[in-house]
């Protein structure tokens, strides 16, 4: 296959971690007979420096003309004093909306070699943690009407939460399709005992569950889900939920796996094009020092191969190489433990390439 990938190196550690991910993608391409062409895109602080805005239209166009997008991270203290619409993070929001991305997908996977980094008890961790949170990204209360008014001599604030059937159905499809590529189990999380939006959510999910009959389906209330993620995360494969619940639960899910530098993510919309990025920021405190953990970005690239390009075997090979390197005891500073060997960003990339 031949694919064009828009590459946003971004700010801080972005260029260092993306460099390692591209080396790994090139090695996977060579091994499996693909060609990946990369198109550099400026977004975030670097775009503000070059063009005076965080995502110029021409840069977004390059993303839209590509088969997928890989992003390092954006932002940093240099741009903190810029006005709101000129902040690096605005570039990210513009990119998501410009690409029509309505789903954010975050795997919560605990690599057994890093089990000590999890705040959960060893007996819980021993059962394994490997699920993905599929979060609706552009609807619900975050995007409803917000207003504050004077009422009866005091202030009153209102935030409107709404979902229509098509918004629920399209995120549901992403969850069921994702489950089809994993352990074939979907848990839909809502608050159907209280909220109308959740009752509609549940109705649509049940309709999809009938259609995707090969996928095991269940509902769970969000308060229970928050407890179950801490008590027995091994029960989950794919969690699908609305925007605000997903915001909270995906952070809980990241926390139980330990290292922030290891976690990839994808954002998807219609079609196969997606935005793939590690969940961490640009880590300005360690930028340019060859200290960053590139694995979150490398695993984001693996997700791109699996979910956007249907290259399951290639993605599995990258994950297997990461697993071997962790087995060998190689660690970047963020996940260093006793008895392990400390390596920098590029040496971590070298080691993963060796096993690929
Ligand atoms: P951060 O994730 O950049 O850093 C938090 C801590 O984790 C730091 O100590 C950092 O050194 C460490 N860390 C993060 N990624 C690491 C990696 N790959 N390897 C080793 N250590 C790593 O969060 P922050 O400090 O709150 O934000 C810094 C900048 O990043 C801000 O400008 C923020 O707006 C931006 N940010 C960008 C994104 C994005 O691009 N998607 C996301 C979050 C924050």
UniProtKB/TrEMBL annotation:
Its cofactor is Mg(2+); Mn(2+). Binds 1 Mg(2+) or Mn(2+) ion per subunit. SUPFAM superfamilies: Isocitrate/Isopropylmalate dehydrogenase-like. The record marks 142, 191 as: Important for catalysis. Keywords: Amino-acid biosynthesis, Branched-chain amino acid biosynthesis, Cytoplasm, Leucine biosynthesis, Magnesium, Manganese, Metal-binding, NAD, Oxidoreductase. GO terms for molecular function: 3-isopropylmalate dehydrogenase activity; magnesium ion binding; NAD binding. It comes from the Bacteria. SMART domains: Iso_dh (SM01329). It catalyses: (2R,3S)-3-isopropylmalate + NAD(+) = 4-methyl-2-oxopentanoate + CO2 + NADH. Catalyzes the oxidation of 3-carboxy-2-hydroxy-4-methylpentanoate (3-isopropylmalate) to 3-carboxy-4-methyl-2-oxopentanoate. The product decarboxylates to 4-methyl-2 oxopentanoate. Homodimer. This is 3-isopropylmalate dehydrogenase.
């Amino acid at each position: 296959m031949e694919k064009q990938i828009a590459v946003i190196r971004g700010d801080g550690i972005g260029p260092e971690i993306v460099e390692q991910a591209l080396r790994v993608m090139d090695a996977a391409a060579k091994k499996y007979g693909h060609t990946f062409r990369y198109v550099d895109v400026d977004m975030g602080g670097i775009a503000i420096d070059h063009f005076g805005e965080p995502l110029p239209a021409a840069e977004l166009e390059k993303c839209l003309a590509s088969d997928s997008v890989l992003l390092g991270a954006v932002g940093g203290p240099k741009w903190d004093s810029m006005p709101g619409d000129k902040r690096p993070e605005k570039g990210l929001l513009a990119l998501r909306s410009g690409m029509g991305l309505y789903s954010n997908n975050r795997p919560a996977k605990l690599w057994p070699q890093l089990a000590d980094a999890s705040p959960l008890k060893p007996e819980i961790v021993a059962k394994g943690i490997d699920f993905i949170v599929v979060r609706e990204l552009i609807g619900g209360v975050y995007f409803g009407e917000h207003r504050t008014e004077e009422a009866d001599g005091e202030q009153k604030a209102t935030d409107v939460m709404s979902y229509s059937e098509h918004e629920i159905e399209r995120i549901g499809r992403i969850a069921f399709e994702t489950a089809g590529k994993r352990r074939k189990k979907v848990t839909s999380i809502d608050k159907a005992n209280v909220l109308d939006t959740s009752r509609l959510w549940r109705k649509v999910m049940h309709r999809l569950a009938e259609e995707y009959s090969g996928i095991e389906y269940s509902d769970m209330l969000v308060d229970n889900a928050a407890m179950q993620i801490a008590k027995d995360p091994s029960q989950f494969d794919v969690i699908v939920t609305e925007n605000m619940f997903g915001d909270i639960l995906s952070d809980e899910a990241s926390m139980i796996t330990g290292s922030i530098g290891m976690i990839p993510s994808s954002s998807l919309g219609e079609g196969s094009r997606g935005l793939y990025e590690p969940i961490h920021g640009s880590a300005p405190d360690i930028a340019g020092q060859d200290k960053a953990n590139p694995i979150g970005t490398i695993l984001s690239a693996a997700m791109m191969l699996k979910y956007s390009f249907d290259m399951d075997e290639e993605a599995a090979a990258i994950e297997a190489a990461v697993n071997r390197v962790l087995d060998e005891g190689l660690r970047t500073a963020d996940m260093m433990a006793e008895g392990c060997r400390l390596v920098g960003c590029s040496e971590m990339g070298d080691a993963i390439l060796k096993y690929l």
